[in-house]
Every structure is written in structure tokens, then in C-alpha cells.
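B., you asked whether I could sanity-check this one before it goes into the benchmark set. Here's the sequence:
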Amino acid sequence: MKKFLFNYVIPYLLYGLVYLWCATLRMKNLNSEVEDQIKSLTGPYILTLWHGRIFYLFYYLRNRPDYFLLISPSEDGDLLAKLASLMGYSVIRGSTFKKAVPAARSLIRVLRDGQRIIIIADGSRGPRCVAQSGSVQLAGITKLPLFPMTFAARNKVVLNTWDRFMLPLPFTRCSINFGSPIYLASRSSEELVEEKRMQLETHLNQLSSECDQA
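And here's what the prediction gave me:
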């Protein structure tokens, strides 16, 4: 019964709820130029964001089967994977925490096949708003641009979770923000990888701060 609910009932209920919820929201794009740049790209690229700022962007970027999401193979991941498929995304099952190498290989394969990926910058377990090196390393291995993005809401509820997950209240205004691409050479030193990781972290926090103040 639990498996039936997780696979065939709850995902559809959440799908309807997310659509109804987000349909009430008003959106302001703080950097449409970078988004237009992203939309003009014909090849693969990487999008990254903080874990706690997924909600509205998950809706905003919907119906893009060329966007692949990495979702854990756990039971909770089954629910999220089904929801992501309903929202029009493609899904890769894997984890950056356990068996990270196979997950990374799957992401690299997708990018080299000409698709795009969305990856969480601070991972599935945090620390919150501390960029992990994974997305930067993927950008270096594949020689592809890494675009940071975020959102904020004028009226919101912030959950008491490790990521301080942000839920916009219905009928409020949301701001989205896209940052300039980060590039890394395929054979970069550990020092340069760390420099780019810090650059990503700084950019994401700056973009988030701009959204919070909009």
C-alpha cells in the first residue's frame, strides 16, 4: 500500500498542489539578459542552485525533458522522481553522498550527449549555502558553462530544516535571478577548483541576497 501511494497517488496530488500554488504567484526576473543567454545556447550546460531555494524554480523550469535532475535512489527519492517526471523533467537516479562516482559518470554521460543538468550546489545534506566542488568539477571535466540561479519570495515561510527551505505564500511575488557563467579548464589544479568553488558560493549568495531585497 505504501509503495502504491508513493508511486501513484501522492505524486499526482503534489503535482496538482504545486501547479495551483505557483499559478497564484507573480514573478519578477532580476536578470533576464543571462536567462536569454541560457535560452540561446544550443548545446549542453549546467544549472546550479541552493537546496533551500528549489521550490519556485522547480515549477518555473518545468516541461524541459532536456533538463536532467539527479535524485537519490531512496524511497523518498522514488516520490520525488515521479513528481519530477510529471513536471516534465528527465531523471537520473543516484547520489552525490553515496556511490558518488557512478552518479558523476551518469551526469557526464548526459552532458556529453548534448543534454543539460540541474545540480544542487550544497548537496542533499549541506552544510547549507556552502558550495560543494561537484558542480565545478563537472563543468571542468566537460568544459561547459555553469550557471548559478536562485529565487526568493516577498512573503514566505522558511522551514526549520537544515537547508531553511523556502516556501512562498500564495499570491505573493517571487524574484528569480540568474548569474553569469563560471568556466573551468578540464585540467585545473586543486587550488583553481577551490577558487571556482568559492566563486560559485559567493555568486549564489549574492544572487540570493539581491532576490531577498527585491
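One thing to flag: The two ends are 45 Å apart (CA to CA). Otherwise nothing jumped out at me.
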